[in-house]
């Protein structure tokens, strides 16, 4: 079951991506579509690894990911 708040979060994210489309410092948003159970967001492929690893290094990015997961589970 998908909570209504999660659906609203995804819709808000798509709205923000559309508003930022074309900005040189933001990954390019192409399209979003959904089926009965999933939402698909089509974006530009950015090669080179994960952004937190780029900024924080491998160890610190894993810590950050763990904190992010804990926050998602909490809320």
Distance between the termini: 16 Å
- The mean pLDDT is 78
What is the number of beta strands? Answer: 2
Characterize the biggest β-sheet. Answer: 2 strands, antiparallel
Task: Give the proportion of residues in helices.
Answer: 40-55%
How much of the sequence lies in strands comes to 5-15%
Largest beta sheet: what is the strand line-up? 1-2
Q: How many whole angstroms does the radius of gyration measure? A: 15 Å
Outline type: globular
- The secondary-structure element order is HEEHH
Number of helices: 3
Uncertain regions spanning at least 5 consecutive residues = none
State the secondary-structure class.
alpha+beta
- State the oligomer: single chain
Question: Which terms summarize this structure?
Answer:
two-stranded antiparallel sheet; about 80 residues; alpha+beta; about 50% helix
Could you characterize the architecture of this molecule?
With 75 residues, the protein is α+β, with helices and mostly antiparallel strands. It contains three helices and two strands. It has a two-stranded antiparallel ribbon with strand order 1-2. The radius of gyration is 15 Å and the shape is globular. The two termini are 16 Å apart. The mean pLDDT is 78.
In short:
With 75 residues, the protein is α+β, with helices and mostly antiparallel strands. The chain has helices spanning 4-19, 51-56, 58-74, and strands at 29-34, 39-43. 52% of the residues lie in helices and 15% in strands.
